[in-house]
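cron nightly-structures :: item 1 of 1
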Amino acid sequence: MPFDIKELLTVTLVLFAIIDVLGSVPVILDIKSKVGHVDAKYATIVSGFIMIIFLFIGNQLLRLVGIDVASFSLAGSIVIFLIGLEMTLNRDIFKSGSANPKSTSIVPIAFPMIAGAGTLTTLLSLRSEYDVLLILIAILINLAVIYLVIRFIPKIESWLGDTGINVSRKVFGVILLSISIKLFSKNLPLLFTF
């Protein structure tokens, strides 16, 4: 069945806005400064795997382990809050002593930054409105962008310079705090609805 290019563009842009990989650049740079390297291919594959699996079995998976979407979103918001706090206050919350590029490419980059609670709940919403093939193509387009951004993070780092990195780190730290509070306040009342 032929699909609508306008619908594909809409779904791709919705996912792009929610994933916000460009907005995550300061966070990725911060993680890179702690572990020395972020594995772009690994982060992209893992986040893609999480998104695709969740697209098909997200609701069933959450029900199976007895978690509702609101609780899942709240947990993601707390992790995002801690990352934002770390960036804003310049304090280490996540211990990075034995961290390696592969493990940091999964947490916190692949999850919850790329394939986080916001992305996964958005995928469930999109599934109810759009064709699955359309959503899969939109995911693949976003994964290509994610890979390119993470792959060329050293170039982005050299363009920004030390001052640019420090300023963007603080600014995006506050933005992450705001996103986490919004996600938390939106989902907290849902826990108490019967």
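cron nightly-structures :: done
Residues 156 and 189 are 40 Å apart (CA to CA).
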